[in-house]
Write a structure and sequence with these properties.
Helix content is 35%, strand content 25%. The chain has helices at 3-10, 17-69, 76-96, 98-118, 124-127, 164-167; strands spanning 129-137, 144-153, 159-162, 170-176, 182-184, 187-191, 196-200, 222-227, 235-245, 254-257, 269-271, 277-284, 297-301. Strands 5-4-1-2-3-7-6 form a seven-stranded antiparallel sheet. Strands 8-9-10-13-12-11 form a six-stranded antiparallel barrel.
Length: 315
């Protein structure tokens, strides 16, 4: 055998067209099967997710069943006791705050009635009635607090009549007139037996109210009161003198009036029909009522002020 023949024998065998086509078809079949394989994997993942979701739902249902089987947290009788305690507390709050709940309605009525009465009186009555703001020492401690009340001026240089309990323990007294002018109380003196006091200012040309020192009002006489009740300013109310009486340790008689009196009225002047001051409001007679106006107001006769201002003013 020649070398050429040997070489030919070592060459790869010839491939027929049928074999080539078969190989091509085989490749194509493999390539077409690849997407199928991927779809199977995706479907397998979805099935696994569904199985996990089903297991989670079943687990949740089991936990819910366990919760339903658990006993209640609090016995019924304990809940009823708690409810009764809450209702009792709310009732106590309502009872103790009832006066303050009524005050907004009373304030509206006071303002409307005051506007009507102001048309019938001399505006000079109002100019000398002042607002008092007092900073005072509370008890024996070092704590301080604030209180307010009413007063009225009887001297152009500044002498303010008010109640002893309004200025008692005062560290600082601020006096505000209706026109907005403010003064500091320089010093004060009082008669605690009649709950009266006088505050001295340093001023000039202040408005004043006239005093009726000669004749006390009689039961049945109409009176009007100007003051600062419930945080309001220059409120006018009217009523009548009811009776003279003695209360507590007061050495003399005081008189009651059926005009509506509220916190903040302490120190308010009581005017007679002539526009002169005949008394000073200092409180209310609790435990009694006088029609729609509430408990009667109490006033000290203006004549008791004379001792406070002795040597400073003559009438």
């Amino acid at each position: 055998m020649s070398k050429d023949e040997d070489f030919r024998e070592n060459e790869p065998a010839a491939v027929t067209e049928e074999e080539q086509l078969a190989e091509v078809h085989g490749d194509r079949d493999f390539q077409e099967n690849e997407p199928g394989s991927c779809e199977f994997e995706e479907e397998t993942g979805v099935l696994q997710e569904k199985e996990l979701l089903t297991e989670a739902v079943e687990s949740f249902d089991e936990e819910k069943d366990e919760d339903d089987d658990a006993p209640a947290g609090r016995p019924l009788w304990l809940r009823l006791v708690a409810l009764v305690a809450i209702l009792g507390f709310l009732g106590l709050v309502i009872v103790t705050s009832w006066p303050s709940l009524r005050w907004p309605q009373q304030m509206a009525g006071l303002v409307l009635e005051s506007l009507r009465l102001k048309k019938e009186i001399d505006p000079a009555w109002l100019e000398a009635v002042v607002q008092l703001d007092v900073v005072y020492r509370e008890g024996a401690a070092f704590a301080v607090a604030q209180k307010s009340g009413t007063g009225f001026n009887i001297d152009q240089g500044g002498q303010i009549i008010t109640n002893h309990h309004v200025v008692e323990g005062a560290l600082n007294i601020s006096v505000t007139f209706p026109d907005g002018k403010k003064f500091k109380g320089e010093y004060w003196s009082g008669v605690p037996e009649f709950d009266l006091a006088v505050i001295n200012l340093q001023a000039d040309g202040l408005p004043v109210v006239p005093l009726n020192m000669s004749q006390a009002p009689l039961p049945g006489d109409p009176v009007r009161v100007v003051g600062n009740p419930l945080g309001l300013n220059n409120i006018v109310v009217e009523g009548k003198v009811m009776q003279y009486l003695r209360i507590g340790n007061m050495p003399g008689k005081i008189f009651s009036i059926d005009a509506p009196i509220f916190p903040g009225n302490s120190g308010s002047p009581v005017f007679d029909r002539s526009g002169e001051v005949v008394g000073v409001v200092f409180g209310r007679l609790t435990g009694t009522a006088s029609g729609d106006s509430g408990p009667p107001g109490l006033a000290a006769p203006i004549a008791e002020v004379a001792g406070l201002c002795a040597g400073n003013r003559t009438w």
